[in-house]
Amino acid sequence: MMNLYMCYLMIIMFMFGCIVFISSRKHLLCTLLSLEFMVLMLFMLLFLYLNFMNYESYFSMFFLTFCVCEGVLGLSILVSMIRTHGNDYFQSFSILQC
């Protein structure tokens, strides 16, 4: 019964992360943070599901590996954007530029 409430809580928190991801269009850092929050909520849901069904948690290590790779790619894009444009505003650069 407690796992069901935890799943509902994780789903609601994931939906809040989706709302923040959609609504934050000004800074790249806020977008990346909300994306990481959504990934962590998905990991918690996956972990609860694997424990509830008595499966091995080996798949969660693969999921965490891909989450770390996604985070590193996002931070590298953020660093390169700050080096080239000086800030992380989406309005400060044009997609048509090289």
From TrEMBL:
What class does this enzyme belong to in the EC scheme? translocase
* Family matches, as Gene3D superfamilies: 1.10.287.3510
Q: Name one GO molecular function term.
A: NADH dehydrogenase (ubiquinone) activity
* Listed transmembrane segments: 6-22, 29-52, 58-82
The record's section on InterPro entries has: NADH_UbQ_OxRdtase_chain4L/K, NUOK/Mnh_C1-like
Q: What catalytic reaction does the record list?
A: a ubiquinone + NADH + 5 H(+)(in) = a ubiquinol + NAD(+) + 4 H(+)(out)
Which terms are listed as keywords in the entry? Answer: Electron transport, Membrane, Mitochondrion, Mitochondrion inner membrane, NAD, Respiratory chain, Translocase, Transmembrane, Transmembrane helix, Transport, Ubiquinone
Query: Where does this one sit in the cell?
Result: Mitochondrion inner membrane; Mitochondrion membrane
Catalytic activity, EC: 7.1.1.2
Q: Does the keyword Flavoprotein apply?
A: no
Please name the GO terms of the biological process aspect recorded for this protein, alphabetically: ATP synthesis coupled electron transport
Q: Write down the membrane topology.
A: Multi-pass membrane protein
Q: Which GO terms describe its cellular component?
A: mitochondrial inner membrane; NADH dehydrogenase complex
Query: Cross-referenced Pfam families, in alphabetical order?
Result: Oxidored_q2
Q: What task does this protein carry out? A: Core subunit of the mitochondrial membrane respiratory chain NADH dehydrogenase (Complex I) which catalyzes electron transfer from NADH through the respiratory chain, using ubiquinone as an electron acceptor.
UniProt lists the family membership as follows:
Belongs to the complex I subunit 4L family.
Q: What is this protein called?
A: NADH-ubiquinone oxidoreductase chain 4L
**What organism does this protein naturally occur in?**
Ochlerotatus vigilax
The gene it comes from is ND4L
